[in-house]
Amino acid sequence: MKICSSKILKNEQVIDNIYKLIIEFNDDKILPGQFFMLKTLNNEFLLPRPISVNDCDDNSVTFLYRVEGMGTKVMSNLAAGTEIQALGPTGNGFDLDKIKGKVAIIGGGIGTAPLLYLVKKLKLKPDVYLGFRDITYGLDEFEKYSDKLLIATEDGSLGQKGFVTALLDFDDYDCVVTCGPEIMMNAVMDACEKSKAKNNSSKDIKCYVSLEKRMACGVGACLGCVVETKDGMKRVCKDGPIFEASELLR
Q1: Which of 62, 82, 130, 206 could serve as 175's disulfide partner, Cβ 3.0–4.6 Å?
Q2: Which CATH number do you get for residue 225?
Q3: Residue 8: other Cβ atoms inside 10 A
């Protein structure tokens, strides 16, 4: 992990309130699931914003983010060539060796962002299930790296109408990875537990979640992003954001 001033290579709108930001950053050890703390150099907002890695190569890192408040609004107006403060990569990332067998990747909304780099780095082609409220984005990239790609939208504008969790039979999978709204991830974790109970524990589906929490520092000092686990309170920024579902107390 390092902190530096990085040049913005691209910062463009994808759809309403969704932006793609690409910065110069040279680090070949970034793991899927890790994130950066990003901040303007002129202190237009005091605290940095945690943004997950959407993709990267040898010389740049790509972020997909949603404009929600003042900080991300300011960020969306930054032009190519502007310098931005980047602290990262931070967080524990996915353990790719544990994601094996028949794998389902389940993403919802902006929670799909960190899952793209994951599917690119996996040693297998997973089944990918993505859910959106209405407008979709980023589907072409997922299609390149997935065995199959299924979409759900709440308004039925694309794919199946309803929630993404209705698209799959959890009994079919050995491992499930999810990131998105908390209500969606809870539904995924519940479905994995029910599948295990239905099969009398003969098939233990591994379920990994990428948690999103508000945080101030991103390095574990402020304790503003703690989550309750079976081993006590843990910090999403330092001990996560990737957790095995069986660790969490809900």
Answers
A1: 206
A2: 2.10.240.10
A3: 17
